[in-house]
Amino acid sequence: MIEIVPVLDLIGNQAVSGKSGNRSTYTPLNTIYAPNSDPLNIANGLELNGAKEIYIADLDLIEKQGNNLYKIKDVNTVLPVMLDCGIRDFESFKFYLDFAYKLIVATETIESIDEMRKIFDTFPRERIVVSVDIKDGQLYSNNLDMSLEEFRDVLRELDPNEIILLNISDVGTGNGYDIRFLDDFKEFKDKIIIGGGINQEDLEPLERYGVKKALIGTALHNGSISIL
Question: Of 113, 120, 185, nearest to 148 (Cα)?
Fold first, then answer.
């Protein structure tokens, strides 16, 4: 059975919801797992319902407009946190290890492949998750000038334990996962965590494909998909 990893986006120490990465339109999250949008309350509700870990994106940190780190550290005492906080380089990775169990090194924000190499040369692989961010069918990055095919070569070199394939264009839409991106990375299927617009109908074919984990936000919080 594919493991459901709940997703929370945080702004101002509150969980928020939005679509397709348009962060200016995010509003407080309504979820069946808590009476409000406090991340700690939500994490407790998720843990009681069988969640094993949680993906948190600190949108304030990613946008360089503050942070939610101490709230995230509290959540990490309830559920192991897989944290996306806009890691840019080796030094930022080292700093944020104090706040979450796993840190996401995302193509959107990492400064260079050399910085990724330094991270992998220094820290345990079980604490590193590489996120391949995809937008409009292309590798999405502020700093890396390369194609999806070229980044696939980097993954072969680094050999991470876990790889997120995140289709940013579909985040929050529930439109279903575009299987083409999975086909492009099928050699890594045992490592892949799928994210972006996944709905209930996606889960069975993803499981048949061999995917072990799926990031679910909107469909989980509105009750369309259950943790177990």
Answer: 185
